[in-house]
Amino acid sequence: MMAAMNSPRQRGELRYGEPLARHTSWRAGGPARRFYTPADGDDLAGFLAGLPDDEPLLWIGLGSNLLVRDGGFPGTVISTFSGLGALHPLDARTLRAEAGVACAKVARGMARHGLTGGEFLAGIPGSMGGALAMNAGAFGGETWQYVTAVETIDRHGERRVRGPEEYEIGYRHVRGPADEWFVAAHLRFEPGDSAVAQARIRQLLERRGATQPTQQPSCGSVFRNPPGDHAARLIEACGLKGRCIGQACVSEKHANFIVNTGGARAADIEALIESVRDTVEREQGVRLIPEVRIVGVAI
Fold it and tell me: Which domain holds residue 66?
């Protein structure tokens, strides 16, 4: 049963049994035992401080790059999209973007402030928290190229400011202090022509729409590109475009996308991921590494 509950100290919203299919871009997955939408950073800190030390936590922004199994998540999900959505300049070249801000919004905000370099962010179908966690990229750019500092929070509600040198950063990989989560990024860009930057963003979005299945539920790219190659090329070479398990299908438009064609279960999506990976390894000799994070309980 789903219900909402707030304690006197909480200004955000706490819900029980919230279906995570409503909050993931694949539109699949079971419920969260608890689902919290903080009012702001201070409210989030207070909420975390009141949780048991062993409470499982899952952070979610726009829910891209995430598959929640059909049995749901047996802990607390923190939704950053509403309460951590601030975007503003810190100085003439630096923007502060909270974890729940959509990457596309950061790109547009950058352009409006007469800055350039982050146009690629418009092609990332997620929020800044997820982009920081995996060094998300598109069209040749990567998130951490522009990060000068990050703000984090731990499970006790303690907040810190850290520099990029405190993290191990690679292709779709970021490793830092355990049990800390990103709540904001400081992003430094180059001065430029606002109109040129906005035109570049429009061009990238048009290119994305022409080459990716943006009108169907997906997680974005499913697999990392192996060194010197592209996952999509390998998948297509195996004749897997259009391969389906249940209502989950390899996109006919872009082979590195799995789309929900209507009512797909998380189990169907996960099975298709494994089938594609096994087929590519058998026929092409390459073991693809998923970008997507898979969590929760299978049923």
Answer: 3-79
261 CB contacts (<8 Å, ≥6 apart)? 216, 244, 247, 248, 249
Residue spans of alpha helices (H) in 83-242: 103-112, 128-134, 194-211, 231-237
220 domain-assigned: no
Question: How many domains does the structure of the chain reveal?
Answer: 3
Q: Which of 101, 102, 121 is nearest to 111 (CA)?
A: 121
Closest to 106 (Cα-Cα) out of 173, 214, 160, 186: 186
Q: Where are the alpha helices (DSSP H) in 126-193?
A: 128-134
Final residue in a domain of this structure, among 162, 182, 211:
211
268-297 pLDDT tens trace = 999 999 999 999 999 999 999 999 999 999
95 and 193, same domain (yes or no): yes
Distance CA 220, CA 13 (A): 28
Tell how far CA 218 is from the center of its chain.
12
- Reference 264, options 240, 242, 243, 246; nearest CA is 246
What are 45's strand-pairing partners?
A: none
Query: Long-range contacts: 274-278, Cβ < 8 Å, 24+?
Result: 275/243, 275/245, 276/222, 276/223, 276/235, 276/238, 276/240, 276/243, 276/250, 277/223
Which tokens go with 33?
A: 């035992």
d(CA 220, CA 125): 7
What confidence tens digit (pLDDT) does each residue in 13-33 have? Answer: 999 999 999 999 999 999 999
Catalytic center residues? 172, 221, 291
Q: In terms of DSSP H, where are the helices of 193-298?
A: 194-211, 231-237, 266-284
